[in-house]
Amino acid sequence: MFISPAFRYILRRGGWYLLTLFVAIALNFALPRLGPTNPVDTIMTRLDSPGMDSQEYMRLYEKYMRDFNLDKSLPVQFFTYLGKSLQGDLGVSFTRHPQKVNDILASGLPWTLALQIPALLLGWLVGNLLGAYAAYRRGIFDKGFYPVSLFFSSIPYFCFAILLVYVFAIHFPLLPAFGGYAGNLLPDFSFTFLASAAQHYILPFLSLFLILVGGQAIGMRSMSIYELGTDYVKYAKMMGLGEGRIVQYIFRNAMLPQLTGLALSLGAMVGGALITEIVFSYPGLGMVMFNAIRENDYPVIQGCALLVTVGVLAANFLVDILIGILDPRIGASQQAGGA
Amino acid sequence: MKQGHFLFSMVSLGLALLLLGCGRDGDGPPELKEFPREKTLYVGGFQWGPPITFSPLHITPAWPITGNMNLIYESLFGYNQLSGNIEPIIGLNHALQGRKLTVELNPAARWHNGDSLTADDVYYTFDLHRRYHTTFHGHWNFLSDIQVEGRHRLVFTLKEENYNPYMMLDIISVTPILPKKIFAELERQASEELHGKSGKAPSDDEVFSRLQEHKNDKPIGSGPYTLQAYSNQTIVLSRVDDYWGNEAIRGGKLPAPTYIIHSTYTSNDKFSLALQQGNLDISQNFIPQVWTKFRHQVGTWYDKEPYYVPAIIPSLLMALTKAPFNDPAFRRASAHAINYDQIKRLAMYDYTPVLQPGYILPFGKEQVYFNAQDTEKHGVNYNPEKAREILSQAGYTWGADGLLIDPSGTKIRTLYASCPSGWNDWESTLRIAVAGMRSVGIDVREKFVEYPVWDRDLKTGNFDFTMRTPHAETSPSVPWIRFDKVMSSKQWRPVGEIMYENEGRYKNPSADSLLQAIPKLTDPEAVKEAFFAINRMFMQDLPVIPLMYRPWHLYQFSQKQWTNFPTEQNPHAPPQCLFVGAGIKALWEIRPADRK
Amino acid sequence: MRMLRSLLKQPTFLLGTLTFLGAVLLAVFFPLLNPVDPMLRDGPAFAAPSQEYFLGTNNEGQDMLVLLIYGLRSSLIVGLLAGLFATVLGTFIGVLAGYKGGWLDDILTAVTNLFLVIPSLVILILISNSIEKRSLGLIALIIGASAWTWTARSVRAQTSSLRERDHVSLARLNGDGTFSILARQIVPYLLSYIFMVFILQMASGILSEAAISMLGLGPYDSVSLGQILNNAQVSEGLINGNWWVFMPAALLISVLTFALYMINTSMEEVFNPRLRK
């Protein structure tokens, strides 16, 4: 049976991502358990029942340990967790008992996706276009643009977010300072709700978008300067090709490494964006995770970390596929090396 | 453009998921989705995460099920921290004779479904807490029995060996009364289900676990509001227009807000900002420099220092069973080394009057128990010189490094002073206390730990110094209970076992007998003398070091949407956030603000 | 030398280096010349900048200027340690994989790529949350341990291009051991590259510390810039308009990172002649 080289490449990458996923699951399982307390301690703090004696306390403690399977050995806990996660069941929250982790994550996921995907993609696109343009124009535009972008990419995400809130929500109260929608609304499909959600979207989006533009533009600028020195550009210029046309060529060629770069830094970006969510109390996964960490709620921490990891892995995989399709060299090397 | 298409499809995917997710976000009744701002009272600071359950039998039900909020479920009486009395709600009056407390119910009281609220419901509620290990189970340490005497009258019998009328008043003003018809049915279902599953009669514990799983998100209460809806961000209550109490106890009026919404933000700064911007009307959270908010129409009980009504005493607990804390001289020196004025100014923004030695508040209803002469004679205040003097008199010396060496000649180990991490004002307080104690050579370091760790170590007695408010509320049993919680050894257990009070493990038979005697006294003069005596003992022995006064509720309000909030000048209700205890009567008094 | 001279001709390099060195000198000498306890609370709460308190005071009446300089010092320490750790570990794994090739390369590359895609901040949060006593050094270590991956990756790529060079082959023929070759024939040729990576690692170390401190997971034994930011947030300084408890620290972090980025990019331009124009 004939398997196209690009497809074989994708299969190999897919297998590799599965392995990564397994390691990520193991880490997610192990790391929260390194801590000095377990979630039952958290639950027990809420039991402020005067007159309860130690035996009663210990009896309840052990009951919760049994209920949450924490009395089992670690391998047993791990394989139970692994088996259930693979079936898509992330368990039940300890501290928000009896809420399901799946439900808690489902309430946060849409907000995170709606915030991060557009911010990432638009930031990447705009940043690269600007970078390519700056590289092509050089001169005054580049002299102003370059340090500004560099500075923007140096600002920590959350500092910028807090600054935006201070300027546009506190000093000039133009936009809501935090939250996903106004407090007098319950989520539904009405126009009022969507309008409110859109209003609350602006600042978190901008805080991610602008910094991303800065970082991407810097990278693209260097790449494009490389490309500018190549023969085909000189040739195209000699031929008198239009400015837009040349930038387009440069963009396309410099984009591949930028795409790889995006894939590699995706994890870091998503992490930074989670902190932005916390600054804005945006009802997404960042907030869910932050709360769960404070309460030592293993299943929710695991679920969040897993979801974020799967998301980043999936995005990476997607970029890999794109590269496989866009980059003719991959097909060639697969054919040569696959023999 | 290829990228354009891709981008477009990803954005639409995101939006589609957003919409999909929103549908699932709220589990509440779907009807009303929007609440007019001008008819709604926004409150905050009582619930810090998404609501999980509204079951009054759960350990931590969402607002406003327990915690003395008389909005959905009501208690018999409500405590008024200004007068020190309990005021009628479901109960009409109460009378104590010997060991019998008779409570008469308001015959007009009824449930939201129209059924009358009778003595049977009250009996059932208390009995529920007797049979199951609920949060109120401990009340039965003071109660021996309850009898129903007719439709609207009950008699509570107090325990002989633990006779305590103070506690009895606490008990009848904090226990929300539940409808028997509904909860008895739940109990029956739970035990039937369990029986069906296992084939044998379930134990009380099993039934109780099962009962706690019931979310109770359509509660039938007796109060002026009911649960309308909730989501991860909000809990919405709507007014019950035919609430029985409107006619029977509130003079025929309706409470002003049609809706009360509790917004669940996750950190203090969000609450402060919301209050400042008028998105929150009542907030119960720590606001640094609250006076800077006055220009944003934010108000507090007093419009000047101390802004709030001080009521509780956060203190520094010490592990009294081990060295060096078993030496009263060491404790006394430590207390002399702490700069209380700095705590007041820098950690508490002057939200506390000047701290007086002892464990009696020198103002309000406790003022009569404050003895200025004793305080002068036995009290400890900030005086590092004195601290050094006490230490050297007791035989302590200082090493070359300036650190303390005990009388036997061994260097005192590094001690840790702990509090939960992230409790900002507490961390500040502790840092100041530590700096003071270090200045006299006590080798002590701050240790900020996660709340669950702190809590476990506190209960098991595994700490050196730790910060804690022994009695964090005010109730009829104050100030007796404040002393009881740091000096009584009736629940005493060795370090390593759980204690819910007196975590420093103080043990003094004469304190015990005094604490047992006080509740039995009836002559006001004798009570006064007894409190003088116990406070003297406290000041001499220092079982804990008081650090500051603090309000019960950090009651603050915004006048952008509503006006006529209770304040010092306009004290139509106590500063209890408009729904705690007797504070609820304020809801009938506030008015919509004039909007320009 | 020629490289250094052309580097010094770069205004961005000069600006970046001077800024960074200035910060280092300030952090080292200010506490020596001015031995005050940064935790001293002798001012009023939230005093605005004045003659007495050049950058005002915070909620606990502490002098913000002193606090900032001590914070700067901690952040520099974290940056240096984390950067050093990440660079040494990453370089070691990178050169080993790139030079040896074969199955060792396969395994090391797989492990590197694996940790590269797992969001490091998530790991960082999980670990920080689990550790009870987070000292400054420990935090630097954790940050470094979660950041070595991309150093390893790029160093590996550089090493494989060096592997077949004549001087390396010669050393191999001479019978030199692997580690001797790595140390004498490979690493010296990559030094400028490794230094650039180190600069970037330092910047990301400073940013990472700020991020976890912002979540309240910062070091318990010292003041860092991230903790100043966290405290500004928790004490609601900014909401009340007390900009001086937040802005200077935020600016300082950004400027520090900016300076490091400038050093990095200017070096890139010098070592990569095609970028020059």
Sum this structure up briefly.
The complex is a heterotrimer of chains A (339), B (596) and C (277). Chain A is mainly α.
SSE arrangement:
The complex is a heterotrimer of chains A (339), B (596) and C (277).
Chain A: H1 5-30, H2 39-45, H3 54-67, H4 74-86, H5 101-137, H6 139-154, H7 157-171, H8 191-228, H9 231-238, H10 243-279, H11 285-295, H12 298-326, H13 328-337
Helix pairs in contact in A: 1-12, 1-13, 5-8, 5-10, 5-11, 5-12, 6-8, 7-8, 7-10, 8-10, 10-11, 10-12, 11-12
Chain B: H1 2-25, E1 40-44, E2 77-79, E3 86-88, E4 91-97, E5 100-105, H2 119-131, E6 143-148, E7 153-158, H3 165-174, H4 180-198, H5 204-212, E8 225-230, E9 234-239, H6 244-248, E10 259-263, H7 268-276, E11 282-283, E12 298-300, E13 310-312, E14 315-318, H8 328-337, H9 340-347, H10 372-378, H11 384-393, E15 397-398, E16 404-405, E17 415-420, H12 424-439, E18 444-449, H13 451-460, E19 465-468, H14 480-487, H15 509-517, H16 524-541, E20 544-546, E21 550-551, E22 556-558, E23 562-563, E24 591-592
Parallel strand pairs in B: 1-10, 1-11, 17-18, 17-19
Antiparallel strand pairs in B: 2-3, 4-5, 5-7, 6-7, 8-9, 9-10, 11-22, 12-22, 13-21, 14-19, 14-20, 15-16, 23-24
Helix pairs in contact in B: 4-5, 8-11, 9-12
Chain C: H1 2-9, H2 11-33, H3 64-100, H4 102-117, H5 120-130, H6 136-145, H7 148-162, H8 166-173, H9 178-214, H10 225-234, H11 247-271
